[in-house]
């Protein structure tokens, strides 16, 4: 029975070591997944922060677009008012036939420029639009050259041209600000896309971390159970060994006692005792 228990204890001890080793492997895996998750979460925060910065820059550029547009419109309105006065003078003095006035032509140019800025079109369509704007500008230039001969409207025409030039320059600035706003918008969207992808990877790493940690806990519980079972075996095996040892000592004592009694009887019969005989009698406590 004792040998059987010892063999069973060996089996449980082996199982205990296996659970311990597996637990350590799973804990190491859980730690690796936790590190990866934390790195991905940090990366996600960086992408979100970068997206927020690009959003602020986009909003700032859009604000610039609206502000510059308003300023451009003021110049255009002022120029239109002067051109309206010039057109009125032309009508009054018969300088306009069936041609459209400068103000009307300029409004059409503004409309086409806005269409160019806001609509998505192919290269051919955009080229046609640019050519049409060019033709309208030439028409305005022809009328302005005609008006240059009239000293009465010369000053107003020059002032209107200056205002129109300022408006045109601001229009180019509006286009640049709008393109910049689009650039920052695209960067913002890309950063959010990267953040979503990074967040998904972090969630997956966290899922694997939880799975590894739960498996490690299960292996640890198995290890603890094996350790308890080993202690139980040790108690039983220790008790059996103590009992066996005590039984062996008792048998030896009986054998010594029996042998000593025989020697003692020989002594009483008058036989001489050797030193070993005396020691044997002492062990048996007969002398």
UniProtKB/TrEMBL annotation:
Q: What is this protein called?
A: Phosphoserine phosphatase
Q: List where this protein forms a coiled coil.
A: 2-160
Which UniProt keywords are given for this protein, alphabetically ordered?
A: Coiled coil
What Pfam families does the record point to?
A: DUF7121
**This protein's record includes keyword Coiled coil:** yes
What InterPro entries does its record include?
A: DUF7121 (IPR055545)
């Amino acid at each position: 029975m004792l040998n059987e228990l010892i063999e069973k204890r060996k089996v449980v001890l082996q199982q205990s070591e296996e659970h311990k080793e597996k637990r350590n492997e799973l804990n190491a895996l859980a730690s690796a997944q936790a590190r990866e998750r934390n790195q991905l979460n940090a990366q996600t925060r960086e992408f979100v922060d970068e997206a927020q910065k690009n959003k602020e820059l986009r909003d700032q550029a859009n604000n610039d677009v609206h502000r510059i547009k308003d300023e451009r419109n003021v110049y255009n309105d002022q120029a239109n008012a002067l051109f309206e006065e010039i057109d009125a003078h032309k009508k009054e003095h018969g300088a306009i036939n069936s041609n459209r006035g400068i103000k009307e032509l300029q409004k059409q140019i503004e409309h086409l420029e806005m269409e160019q800025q806001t609509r998505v079109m192919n290269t051919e369509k955009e080229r046609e639009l640019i050519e049409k704007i060019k033709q309208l500008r030439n028409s305005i230039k022809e009328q302005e050259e005609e008006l240059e001969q009239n000293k009465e409207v010369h000053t107003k025409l020059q002032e209107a041209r200056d205002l129109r030039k300022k408006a045109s320059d601001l229009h180019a600035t509006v286009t640049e600000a709008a393109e910049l706003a689009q650039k920052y918008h695209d960067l913002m969207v890309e950063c959010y896309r990267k953040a979503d992808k990074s967040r998904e990877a972090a969630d997956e790493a966290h899922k694997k971390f939880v799975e590894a940690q739960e498996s490690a806990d299960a292996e640890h519980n198995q290890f603890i159970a094996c350790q308890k079972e080993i202690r139980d075996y040790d108690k039983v095996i220790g008790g059996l060994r103590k009992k066996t040892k005590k039984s062996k000592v008792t048998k030896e004592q009986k054998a010594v006692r029996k042998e000593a009694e025989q020697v003692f009887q020989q002594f009483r019969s008058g036989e001489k005792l050797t030193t070993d005989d005396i020691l044997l009698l002492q062990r048996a406590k007969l002398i």
